[in-house]
Every structure is written in C-alpha cells, then in structure tokens.
Design goal:
By secondary structure, this protein is α/β, with parallel strands linked by helices. It has 20 helices and 25 strands. Helices cover 36% and strands 23% of the residues. It binds 1,4-dihydronicotinamide adenine dinucleotide and 2-oxo-3-(phosphonooxy)propanoic acid. The site of 1,4-dihydronicotinamide adenine dinucleotide (NAI) has 32 residues, from helix 6 and helix 9. InterPro entries: ACT_dom, Ado_hCys_hydrolase_NAD-bd, D-isomer_2_OHA_DH_cat_dom, D-isomer_DH_CS, D-isomer_DH_CS1, D-isomer_DH_NAD-bd, PGDH_ASB_dom.
Length: 647
C-alpha cells in the first residue's frame, strides 16, 4: 500500500469535506495538526493509496458479477448518477460499468484524466458509449454480447404475440372498467356517510337514505352493464393469427436469428434482411435472406434486430413505411433510433402500420405526452428486453470477466473498439503479439534521428490463408512498438490505428503464403521502414529499408534477421548490436568491458558473412551500459559501429 504525504488548508474545519475528491476507497489518516493560519488549519495527512483498481458500477449489476469484480478491485456501486456526478467521479476510476441508461460521452473520457482504462457495457448495444472518444483516449470498451440474446429474443416473441392478440390493450381495458366502477360508486357511499353523520333531521335523513340507495343501485347497474358490455370488449380486441404469416427479421445477428427460430416454431414464414449475415446460417434455420425492399414490402410482421449506427439511424421512415404492406405490424426490441418515431405515428394514424410493439425509444424514458407511446395501437415496455433474472446474472458475469481481464492487461475477447479474437486464437497468437511489439520497437530505434518514420511495411509469412490469420492484433502491437519509443503517447490495442493515422504513419501489410502445414499461425514477421537512414548501417536491406525479422521459438520471440544479416537472438532485456571485423578475441574484449562496468550479459551471438570478414555481434544485457562503456566498445579497433537498443 503506497502512502503519500501532503498538506491541505481547509477553509472549514471539516477535513473530510476537502478530501472528498479522493476515492471513497482511499484511506485518509490525519497524522498531525499544525498551527492555525489565516485561512484555517494546516494539516498533514497521510493518504494511503489502495493499489487495487477502482471500478465504478453506474447501473444495477447482477450479484455474481459484483462478487467477481470485488475479488480484484474496489467496487463503487453508485447508481443514478447524473452526468455531472459521473464526470466528477470518473477521474478516480480505472473502469466503469454501465447498462443502456448511462451516456458515456466524450466529456466522461476527457474528465477521466487518462485514468479510465476500460468501459464495460453489461449488455450488447454500445450506442450509449462514444466509441471514437474512447478510442482516442486509449480506453478499451468491452461488452457482454451473448448473455442476454435469448432474453431479448423471448421478449421480441412476447411482444409479437401480445400485439397480435391485443393482450396489453385488453388487459388495460378490463382493469380500467373495474376502476371506473369503483370511482363511480365511491361518491355515493361517501354522500350516504355524510348524511348519516349529519343527524337531527331524521325524516330528512331517511328521505336522503332512500334517495341515496336508489342512486347507488342505479349507478351499480350501469357500471356492471358497462363492464359486461363495454369494458369486457371481446369484439374490439379480436386479434390476428401468426401461423402462415410472413415475418421479416431485420438484422439477422444473435437476437434476430433466435427470433427467427422461434417464429418458425409458431408456424410463420420467416424472411430476413441483413447485408452482413452469412447465407448458410440463414439457410440452416430455413430463413431466406432478402433485400431491404423485398423484406419490408412482403412482410405481415417486421421485427427489428440491428444495432443503432449512423447507417441504421431512422432507416424506418416515411419512405420505408410507404413501401410496406397496408396493415403491417412492427416489433422493435433493438433501438428506438432505428425508427423515425414521428413517421411511425403518421403511419399508425393512416393505418399503413396497424400496430407496433416497442421496447425501445429514441429518448428513454419517453416523454409523458409521447404521441407514439399513447397511441392506442401501440404496445410498450420500458426497455425490458434483457431484463430476466437469468440474463442479468449472465451479463454481469460476462462483463465483469471482461473488465477484470482488461484491467490485468489481458487481451479482451469482447472488445468493441479493439481487435476482438476468440480466446483460443488469442492464446495461439500471444507469443507473436510480443514478437510484433518487439520488432516494432527494435526497428524504430535503428532509425537515425528516430522520428520521420512514415512508411512501414509489415510482412507476415504463414502457411495459413488470409481468412485463417487475423493480423489486426499484430499490426496494433507493431504500431505500439514503433510509436512508444519515440513519443510520450501510450499506445494500446485500442488507439494504435488511430495514433498511427494521427502521426501520418502509414502501415501496409503483406502476406507470404508458405507451403507446408499451417500448424503454426506464422513462420516469421518482417518489419521494414522505408525512406529513412539507420544509425546501424547493417540494418539496411539491399533495397534501402531498415529491415528486421523475427520468429517465435519455444513460444519466445527471437530476432532472426537484421538487414540482410542472419542472427538468432532471444528478444529479452536489452541488446547491443555491434558490427565488427570477424577476428579472434572479440567476444572476450567486449565481454570484459561490460564485466568491468558491472553489466550482466545474458547471451552473445555472432553472425558473419565469412570468416575474417564482416560480422555482427548481438549481446543481450540485463542492465543498461553507461555511455562510457559503449564508447569503450566502439573504440576497439575491429569494431565498426555499435548501437544499444531497449526491447
Ligand atoms: N431491448 C433490449 O433490451 C435488447 C436490445 N438489444 C439490441 O438488439 C440488437 C441486436 O443485438 P444482437 O443480435 O445481440 O447483435 P448482433 O451484432 O449479433 O446482430 C446485429 C445484426 O444486425 C446486422 N446489421 C447491421 N447493420 C444492418 C442493417 N443496416 N440492416 C440489417 N441488418 C444490419 C448485423 O450484420 C448483425 O448481424 C442491438 O441493437 C442490441 O442493442 C440486444 C439485447 C437486449
Ligand atoms: O443489451 C442491450 O443492448 C440492451 O439493450 C439491454 O439494455 P439494458 O442492459 O437492459 O439496459
């Protein structure tokens, strides 16, 4: 536990008031109080900074997820924060967990002061998180993409069937009938009571008593008739059948395909529109993938399951409603923003859309006088798609695992703004990830002057076809290696591409398809930097670029080529590269200088063109040698150039 002494001058005697900007989980010990000043007390306080990260949970999260978070972090459950409160708290948090009710805006990232490392969305839709701002601030965004799929699909089906059979309207109608009876009878009972209490004029009271009962009975009679004939509205709520009808599933992803599967079970004919869905997945459950126009113009029911993006925003508008079959029925369990809500009201009024069942709205909660919500042909629920006990426990665990993993620096399988790869592939690629970063680091340190790097070519040699080798992660790590040694920018998987672009660094990728078994994901990776000069001339390839190449051996990164020189060096610690004339005694001379300087050598290897010709000595060192030590090595007559590189 780190401790930090500082001085505060509270203007009020209350020290805790002044220290409230610190995390509630930070322990503050006041150790000494000194003399009064004009402004108040001068106090020495010792603040014990808890080394555990702090996770702010801003919306209700399942207990199992909270327990998991608590094993690794301090958990601050502060629900219902307004935006300003969130912005104030965020600079004390390493991670933030939200559901759909919290807007994680650019301001949140800006005011985190760089501390926020991960935002966890306990659910699927990340339209409430400003992803560009997160990426620019190097903050990873992870979600829980699978645990609420079934809940959302079941809710979609619940709304579909409830809408077709007017369940919600009929239920409300019966209940409003009963309550109107209650309210109609109540005043007469009250009146009767008042008359009794008045006392005195007995005759008069009895007269009133009779009158009162007569009125009460007639009202009761009218009400019962109304309930039976009026609010027991069997003919008003005649529904429509689902069997044999066409359902268009718009967005054939996880939820959409589960809805389709269930709708098939109800005997519906299911078509789907999704520009990115694989046709074979649709075929496997007996669904035809069709164009947007065909889907909306042939469907009796339309169920929406695409994400809200700039491309899908208000894609259901006056124009698309006009192409629909008259009397179509629409279910939306995706996002309110995919529908132009005013256009939907117009379509409902004109009868183009017979009914809509909506779980989501452009503004949540919708305004109390929302014409859409109040429309008699609209059934609504308050964004309940993911709200089952099971789904909430599931998303809580899914997001907590992702957040803890991200805080530990592990690669996230549910990252939204960084390369996302399945866990098995991540584990297979892990040593190549390290190799990539080290190659980038090494290459950029070989550039004379360091900056000015603009054009980098990365070559991946593999027996695997492009579809079996996702290189985004490797590219991001090479970028990290290239940028970090020459800047103060912290690069991670999230902001690598963005930072490269911002610095005008163009990274092109090339693949060499090797023959043989694709057991290993990669044979070697090569990084070339064009249009620069090197501080170590040997690093230049024949075609004039700085070139380094590496392989993974025993899951460890190895440098195997510098320029055109073959070497074999484990890429650990730091390296001294030394170009020399190959002659006896070189290893000893260099080794003894380093020994005298108390620099521990982890390995030495010499690669040469031919005996007594040019050679490259690669020396792994545990400590950084002093400038004097490097100068002494450089002064050995056979040594032609030398460079020290931190990996
Ligand atoms: N109401 C609720 O409580 C819940 C709502 N959702 C929402 O449901 C939606 C779907 O979730 P998942 O199926 O888990 O996501 P997903 O990512 O598995 O599926 C979305 C599908 O939409 C497709 N798509 C993208 N652009 C499209 C376009 N222009 N037209 C048609 N399809 C398009 C994608 O290709 C993808 O297949 C999301 O918006 C999510 O936020 C999810 C869970 C609960
Ligand atoms: O997962 C989603 O996309 C949802 O819409 C669920 O939202 P919620 O977590 O219930 O606020």
């Amino acid at each position: 536990m780190a401790s930090w002494n500082f001085m505060v001058t509270p203007t009020k005697p209350s020290l805790s008031w002044k220290l409230s900007f610190l995390s509630p989980l930070t322990t503050v010990n006041v150790t000494r109080r000194q003399n009064r000043t004009a402004k108040g007390f001068v106090v020495f306080a010792t603040v014990f900074l808890d080394p555990k990260p702090t996770v702010l949970v801003a919306e209700k999260l399942g207990e199992a997820g909270l327990e998991l978070l608590k094993t690794f972090a301090n958990v601050d459950c502060s629900y219902n924060l307004d935006h300003e409160e969130l912005c104030t708290k965020i600079s004390l948090c390493d991670a933030l967990i939200v559901r759909s009710g919290t807007k994680v805006t650019r301001e949140v990232f800006e005011r985190s002061g760089g501390r926020l490392k991960v935002v966890g969305r306990a659910g699927v839709g990340i339209d409430n998180v400003d992803l560009s701002a997160a990426t620019e601030h190097g903050c990873l965004v992870v979600n829980a993409p699978t645990a609420n799929t079934i809940a959302a699909a079941e809710h979609g089906i619940a709304l579909l069937t409830a809408m077709a059979r007017n369940i919600a309207q009929a239920d409300a109608s019966i209940k409003s009938g009963l309550s109107s009876l209650f309210f109609m009878v109540m005043p007469f009972l009250m009146l009767q009571l008042v008359i009794y209490r008045a006392g005195g004029l007995l005759y008069c009271c009895e007269l009133n008593f009779v009158l009162c009962y007569a009125l009460q009975f007639s009202v009761q009679y009218v009400s019962v008739v109304m309930i039976n004939k009026g609010k027991w509205q069997r003919s008003k709520y005649v529904g429509v059948s689902l069997v044999g009808k066409t359902l268009a599933v718009m967005g054939f992803g996880k939820v959409g395909s589960e809805v389709a599967r269930r709708a098939k079970g109800l005997g519906m004919h299911v078509i789907a529109h999704d520009p990115y869905a694989p046709a074979d997945r649709a075929r496997a459950i007996g669904v035809d993938l069709v164009s947007f126009e065909e889907a909306i113009s042939t469907a009796d029911f339309i169920s929406l399951h695409m994400p809200l993006t700039p491309a899908t925003s208000k894609m259901f508008n006056d124009e698309s409603f006009s192409q629909m079959k008259k009397g179509v029925r629409i279910v939306n369990v995706a996002r309110g923003g995919v529908i132009d809500e005013e256009a939907l009201v117009r379509a409902l009024d004109s009868g183009t859309v017979a009914q809509a069942a909506l779980d989501v709205f452009t503004e949540e909660p919708p305004s109390k006088d929302s014409k859409l919500v109040l429309h008699e042909n609209v059934t609504v629920t308050p964004h309940l798609g993911a709200s089952t006990t099971e789904a909430q426990e599931g998303v809580a665990i899914e997001v907590a695992e992702a957040v803890v993993g991200a805080l530990k620096g592990q690669l996230a399988a549910t990252a939204v703004n960084a390369p996302m790869l399945p866990a098995a592939i991540l584990s297979e690629l892990a040593p190549f990830v390290t190799l990539s970063e080290k190659l980038g680091r090494l290459a950029v340190q070989l550039v004379a002057g360091g900056s000015g790097v603009q054009s980098v070519k990365v070559t991946y040699a593999s027996a695997r076809g492009p579809d079996d080798l996702d290189t985004r992660l490797l590219r991001a790590m090479i970028t990290k290696g290239l940028i970090e040694p020459i800047s103060s920018v912290f690069i991670n998987l999230v902001n690598a591409d963005f930072s490269a672009k911002q610095r005008g660094l163009r990274i092109t990728e090339e693949r060499i398809l090797l023959e043989g078994s694709p057991e290993n994901p990669l044979e070697f990776i090569q990084v070339q930097i064009a249009n620069v000069e090197s501080k170590f001339s040997i690093a230049m390839s024949d075609s004039g670029e700085i070139k380094v190449e590496g392989r993974v051996k025993d899951r460890k990164p190895h440098l195997t080529k510098i320029g055109s020189f073959g070497v074999d060096v484990s890429m650990e610690g730091s390296l001294i590269l030394c170009r020399q004339v190959d002659q006896p005694g070189m290893v000893g001379s260099v080794g003894s200088i380093l020994g005298e300087e108390n620099v521990n050598v982890s390995f030495m290897s010499v690669g040469r063109i031919a005996p007594r010709k040019q050679a490259v000595m690669t020396i792994g060192v545990d400590e950084e040698p002093s400038k004097e030590a490097l100068k002494r090595i450089e002064e050995i007559p056979a040594v032609e150039e030398i460079v020290f590189l931190k990996l």
